[in-house]
Amino acid sequence: MGDYSKALEYSKKDFEITKQVLPENHPDLAFPYNWFGKIYRSMKDYPKALENFEKCLTIFQKTLPERHPNQAITYSNIGDVHRLMGNYEKALAFHQKALNIQGNVQCNPLECATTYINLGETYREMKDYSTALTYFEKGLEIREKKLPKNHPDLAVIYHNMAKLYLATQKYSMAMKNIQQAVEIAQEKLPSTHPHLLEYNETFEKIRMKM
């Protein structure tokens, strides 16, 4: 719903209870840090997001087998925060660690899709548009197969692709993708949600070019 301060408040309450009922070496203690990481990333507090994802990874490394899918998605989350902080080489290195696991063990396909999309965003920001598009298409194919047609995670990838097509001056493709993103967000998200506001902003940028 985009109410990140409320999400943080309840996640902290949840964590206090979790700490009381689980032994110190339990892998489930990593999940609250994962949620903190996601919330702080959404709040654009990237150092705190990174700190929490790294705590999450440390617990998984101590408590799970070496090539566990939970480690893979955490590597990708860490990579995504490095991208948001402009550290593209570090971002690519962490995404590669995620892919190394996801390519060799049975993983949730939607987690593989997230890694592909995170890689796509990194390459898009590095202006390597053809590589970015390859990864976006891989991620989109999985999400379209596995999610309902109006799922907000589909809006995210349509928006990513719209930004790529805008940058490569393929304005009709950009418009097609941003319209799909906006339609889903209008149906599924509150009108004040940061994602919807961002999609509308991108829509205007594309409209001005057409």
Task: Give a short summary of the structure.
The protein has helices at 4-21, 30-42, 46-63, 69-84, 88-102, 109-125, 129-146, 152-167, 171-188, 194-209. The chain is an all-alpha fold and 210 residues long. Helix 1 runs antiparallel to helix 2.
Any chance you could write out the topology, listing elements then pairs?
Elements: H1 4-21, H2 30-42, H3 46-63, H4 69-84, H5 88-102, H6 109-125, H7 129-146, H8 152-167, H9 171-188, H10 194-209
Helix pairs in contact: 1-2, 2-3, 3-4, 4-5, 4-6, 5-6, 6-7, 7-8, 8-9, 8-10, 9-10
Give the overall form.
globular
Query: Which structural class should the secondary elements be placed in?
Result: mainly alpha
Contiguous low-pLDDT stretches (5 residues minimum) are none
Mean pLDDT: 95
User: Strand fraction band?
Assistant: under 5%
Q: Please tell me how large the radius of gyration is.
A: 18 Å
Tally the beta strands. Answer: 0
